[in-house]
Amino acid sequence: MLIKSFIYAIIGATAFLSAAKAQYNDISGNNPYIQQYLEEDEENWNKSIIYVFYNNGSCHSCAAAMGLIYNIYEQNYSGQYSYFEINYADPGEYNFQIEYNLTEPLSIVLVRINDGMARGYYKISNPQDWVADPSYFEQNIITQINNFFN
Fold this sequence. Notes:
Elements: H1 2-20, H2 32-40, E1 49-54, H3 62-76, E2 82-87, H4 94-99, E3 106-114, E4 117-125, H5 134-149
Parallel strand pairs: 1-2
Antiparallel strand pairs: 1-3, 3-4
Helix pairs in contact: 3-5
């Protein structure tokens, strides 16, 4: 009976951990863009990345959201993290779409870099939905960035 309970506990914990990794995956060494980023500059070996991904889809508030995201980056994280805006619908950017499960018109992907390896990522989906309240938008984005990187 004790062994059976232990086995069920292990199975339950494994299922919980698998579900918890939905937006936090270890992508160490699997992404050619990360490898290129690390090879470009020795300082990038411990400099995490903030990606802003968009596509060619119709999105009325994406431009405003991207402006707010960039301002947040400049005011709070410039020099601390690298920042890239990428149209994942462009030819040659398909790997980003697959790697980070990009389907939304706008997503922010935070990639933790440590000792020359990507140590996981966190995706913030559809931040354009919060653009009507700039104060909430800023607070929410900053909180999520700080929670992931710290």
